[in-house]
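INTERNAL AUDIT FORM
Audit reference: QA-55
Scope: verify that the stored structure record matches its stored sequence.
Auditor: D.O.
Record contents follow.
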Amino acid sequence: MRRIRITTVLITVLVTLALPASALAVGRLQWTLTPKNLGQPLGATPYTLGNDTGGTLRYGNRVFGVDLVWGGGPLQWELRHSSPTNVTDHRTIPATESVALYNRSTRRYLASGFQRFGVDLVWVTTPRYQWKVYEGQDVSGNVRVKLYNTIRSAYLIYGRQTFGPNLTFSAGPYTTPPPNQPSP
């Protein structure tokens, strides 16, 4: 009887240890930019930033963490090239170019920075060209976008937080798959 209990406990522990690896294996291609365009996003073009799990990410007041909330809203986000001041650059953003992530509602840029609660993101008034964006297809064939922060060397993804917006960083090298191939 005791031997069965020990065996059951050991199996339970092993299964519990194995589950997080598969349960936490979240695809990094989990964002959508609306309105959609064919291929890479365009610079200085208003978009909504959506996530299948969280909804639409937008600026909003928050007691703890960076002022981001989930919910509908106007086209708040722009990806900005490193261009001369007062130049609106609508060129396509290559997957290899670092851009600044601008929010039209708060008129500030989202950047990596220390945050006591939640994900380490802050609002800044000057552009920080630390984001890379890659549009591709997930394994289901849906068009999605990866948001990669070059300072953190990590992808911004949906992730549960006790305080602050449900966002987290998933560390890993920035990759773009060959054309017409699904991305992890």
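Auditor finding: record pair retrieved intact. Residues 7-25 have pLDDT under 50 and may be disordered.
Action required: none
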